[in-house]
Model the fold of this input.
Amino acid sequence: LDVLYASGDRDFEDGSQNAFKADINYEMGLMLFRHVIAAQSARFPTTASDPDLSGYPNEDLDRLPTRGAVSNTIAIFPRAWWRPTSGLELYGGPLIALTAVDYSDPLNTKLAGGDNRNPLDAAPSGYLGTEVDLGLRYRATLASTKLTLALEGALFFPGGAFDNANGDSMEMIYGGRGLISYAF
Done:
């Protein structure tokens, strides 16, 4: 069971950095933080520096992208493992994520006169969503070497934090990855 609290920063113009960002190597699920929020926050420095909106942009806009790090969340991630036979492991569980503060976009917030708006121009919700992760891993020892084969997949069901200005929800996102490791 992983339980995490990481503070967020809802005011991009107050001259202080309040968002905690965990090490990007800390894995909390496969999709939500590493891909969805990383992709949305990657555009924050560009949109926040629009000279038509801000005149002269802040110098520290590189602090806004998460780069896949867990930030601005209250999350619970219970997982279970099962070993049906030696070397084979099945694992998975649901990641339930809420925001610590409003999930805000600097451009849409500024365009709304300072009222917090999310990256899809809607009033922010505190529910990021639920991600269901499943994995299969096989490990074997071959002549004093170690072979690892793994497949992992995730389904992300976006919460209200990803609604757009019309109130429409973002569609489910899914993905997976494979791993082959051979250690001599």
